[in-house]
Amino acid sequence: MNEFLGGNQRELARAKNMKKSGKKAAAEQESNKGLTLEQRKERDAQRMREKQLKKQQDAMEGKKQSEK
């Protein structure tokens, strides 16, 4: 009977903790296996530079299209 007096806070906290602990760390993910932190940072920075360049090129093409 005492278990009903406290509500379900304990159960909610337990469920939240299980969900949180079920996530993989960044180093354990498939795309990051075998890479050090520095290697991951360099790879990600290179991807961002490529995305920025592509966005700039798309913007320039958009300007050229609007000038015609």
Describe this structure in words.
The chain has 68 residues and is mainly α. It has a domain at 35-68. Helices cover 65% and strands 0% of the residues. The protein is built from 2 helices and no strands. The chain has helices spanning 9-21, 37-67. The longest helix has 31 residues, at 37-67. It is elongated, with a radius of gyration of 24 Å. The model has no long low-confidence stretch (mean pLDDT 84). InterPro entries: SERF-like_N (IPR007513), SERF1/2-like (IPR040211). This is Small EDRK-rich factor-like N-terminal domain-containing protein. Residues 1-68 are annotated as: Disordered. Residues 7-42 form the Small EDRK-rich factor-like N-terminal domain. Residues 38-68 have a biased composition (Basic and acidic residues).
Topology, please?
Blueprint: H1 9-21, H2 37-67
Region (Disordered): 1-68
Domain Small EDRK-rich factor-like N-terminal: 7-42
Protein name: Small EDRK-rich factor-like N-terminal domain-containing protein
